[in-house]
Amino acid sequence: MATREISVNIPGDLDPVYSNRIQIAYKEDEFTFLFLHEIPGTSQARAKSIVSISPRHAKSLLAVLAKSVQDYEQKFGQIKPPESAPQSESNVTIRGYS
Where is the composition biased (Polar residues) (predicted)? Predict the structure, then answer.
């Protein structure tokens, strides 16, 4: 496979976004990721970004993310999954976006 280089222009006023929760929706022609910042100690979250991609790009994202996690674990050690979440954490309904 040939290597391709892409020049990326990152605007100076682009702010980094932190997300500690994600909602994923899909339909036939797209996957939509709603990145949220859940405010600790409350039942509120703030939407930080909404990103939609094609199913083909979603499949590529899955492969790239799996490879990145594998590389991370080789460098820093295995990522331990969270211990079983309390019942209130395992079934969360997100209101305000559909």
Answer: 85-98
pLDDT at 87 over 80: no
More confident: 30 or 90: 30
DSSP assignment of the chain equals -----------TTPPP---SEEEEEEETTEEEEEEEEEPTTSS-EEEEEEEEE-HHHHHHHHHHHHHHHHHHHHHH-PPPPPPPPPHHHHS----S--
Query: What is the structure's pLDDT at 86?
Result: 56
Structure confidence by residue, pLDDT tens digits, 32-57 = 999 999 998 898 999 999 999 999 99
Reported in sequence order, the residue ranges of the chain that DSSP labels E, i.e. its strands, are 21-27, 30-38, 45-53
Question: How distant, in Å, are the alpha carbons of 43, 49, 61, 84, 87 from that of 40?
Answer: 8, 19, 28, 18, 17
